[in-house]
């Protein structure tokens, strides 16, 4: 990362100097080369510009404006790492859980046991940050074999504000359905991990069956929500870190998008 | 705004000092009051914290995580103003238009004249920033009478990256439908304003008819898109600054959310 940073700064400076070289035959030449006055300022300006660009990229991710992307932009590697490890990510997940909690409390439930809140699992209830910390926070192309090894460890910690919301939602009388892109083969390990992280008493845990493999997440999750609606359930809330958790058919009355600038699932 | 900033800083400092007073009876008292060492740092930290919180609020807006809101948070007034007037807003609208343009070029059109791109008008094609600059960039509660006076002037400038996208989309052979929450009574003035700002040759301009007044924007816009689909059109792209431009029924294959932290239309 440090090397990359240096390389980018160096490129920018090369550009600035080469521009001067290109124009140096112009007359009259300025007697004072103002830009050399304060190289520190140039570094600062470059850092500011990079931050602006990467923040803009993150907004585009969260507003679902980007086409499927495989890795984070290389120049934003430090930015994403700082975002995730710093307070910003924590503040963002706290806010989304708080907003969802306010909504959950405002809903009048029918009392017939058909009011549902759907939760995704990875990066929604469970955090895979220990894995992504070892894989560049989204800078490396996703490796399903390596990731499955991590899943098998069942060591993913809870996303604490989501656990709080989860308990509030259960306490309010919602049925809680977990809808995950994980495979049916990973049911036992997933149940174990969820329990260890503090999640209990859900009503359904839906994983990809054999016939669901190869389906886009948007399709698979829409189909599963369609089934819920056919069975008479009302999907009042839905929490997920991917737009493919939230969009499609049989969408919830209110959807809550948790931040995730590390990876994209179509 | 400057007053508000001062007031907030003052409150924070009062809090810090009152905390010390509350604890001053504790023994042993520290001999060195470390936090007084550098008041400038406290100001800086407070500014950083406010920026983090307001950025998080803006993300929640753009990811559609908030309930209907009437004004921006008072403590984020300077933040929103700086965002809009600085480079960040420009970078964001450039990015969303660029992404939309890439998608538009990637789509193979059928050639039967039924492929449609839908554009919203206010804060999507036309910018009302001259109006909002006079009204606190979203800090004041929306005043429809005052806003209509501004609309009647027909002086809203083009959002330049949107004009570029508009021309690309038309050039690619899309039918272009403009779908706005403005009233049918404002048709003439809207056509004039759009033309003056450089927008020409759209295929339909749909405004709220008498029966549409009082409908939520999400409902009104969904109904209009349903009609398009019934007429055999395929809505391949949709650009809007509000989620109510993009969600509901008959949604587009790809939707593009322009940034707008100033107001919310349900």
From TrEMBL, chains A, B:
<dbReference type="GO" id="GO:0003993">
    <property type="term" value="F:acid phosphatase activity"/>
</dbReference>
<keyword id="KW-0758">Storage protein</keyword>
<comment type="similarity">
    <text>Belongs to the APS1/VSP family.</text>
</comment>
<comment type="function">
    <text>May function as somatic storage protein during early seedling development.</text>
</comment>
<dbReference type="Pfam" id="PF03767">
    <property type="entry name" value="Acid_phosphat_B"/>
</dbReference>
<dbReference type="InterPro" id="IPR014403">
    <property type="entry name" value="APS1/VSP"/>
</dbReference>
<dbReference type="InterPro" id="IPR023214">
    <property type="entry name" value="HAD_sf"/>
</dbReference>
<protein>
    <recommendedName>
        <fullName>Acid phosphatase 1-like</fullName>
    </recommendedName>
</protein>
<keyword id="KW-0732">Signal</keyword>
<dbReference type="InterPro" id="IPR005519">
    <property type="entry name" value="Acid_phosphat_B-like"/>
</dbReference>
<dbReference type="InterPro" id="IPR036412">
    <property type="entry name" value="HAD-like_sf"/>
</dbReference>
<dbReference type="InterPro" id="IPR010028">
    <property type="entry name" value="Acid_phosphatase_pln"/>
</dbReference>
<feature type="signal peptide">
    <location>
        <begin position="1"/>
        <end position="18"/>
    </location>
</feature>
<dbReference type="GO" id="GO:0045735">
    <property type="term" value="F:nutrient reservoir activity"/>
</dbReference>
<keyword id="KW-0325">Glycoprotein</keyword>
């Amino acid at each position: 990362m440090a090397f990359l940073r240096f390389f980018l700064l160096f490129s920018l400076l090369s550009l600035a100097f080469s521009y001067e070289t290109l124009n140096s035959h112009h007359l009259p030449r300025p007697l004072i080369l103002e830009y050399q006055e304060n190289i520190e300022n140039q570094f600062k300006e470059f850092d500011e510009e990079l931050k602006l660009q990467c923040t803009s990229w993150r907004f585009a991710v969260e507003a679902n404006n980007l086409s499927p992307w495989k890795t984070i932009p290389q120049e934003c590697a430090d930015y994403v790492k700082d975002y995730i490890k710093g307070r910003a990510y924590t503040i963002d997940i706290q806010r989304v859980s708080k907003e969802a909690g306010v909504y959950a409390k405002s809903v009048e439930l029918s009392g017939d046991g058909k009011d549902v809140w759907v939760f995704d699992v990875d990066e929604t209830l469970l955090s895979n940050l220990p894995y992504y910390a070892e894989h560049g926070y989204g800078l490396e192309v996703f490796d399903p074999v390596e990731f499955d090894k991590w899943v098998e460890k069942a060591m993913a910690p809870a996303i604490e504000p989501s656990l709080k919301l989860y308990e509030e939602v259960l306490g309010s009388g919602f049925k809680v359905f977990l809808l995950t892109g994980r495979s049916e083969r990973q049911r036992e390990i997933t149940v174990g991990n969820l329990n260890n992280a503090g999640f209990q008493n859900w009503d359904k845990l839906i994983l990809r069956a054999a016939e669901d493999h190869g389906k886009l997440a948007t399709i698979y999750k829409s189909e599963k929500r369609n089934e819920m609606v056919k069975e008479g359930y009302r999907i009042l809330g839905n929490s997920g870190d991917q737009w493919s958790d939230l969009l499609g058919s049989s969408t919830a009355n209110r959807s809550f998008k948790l931040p995730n600038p590390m990876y994209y699932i179509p």
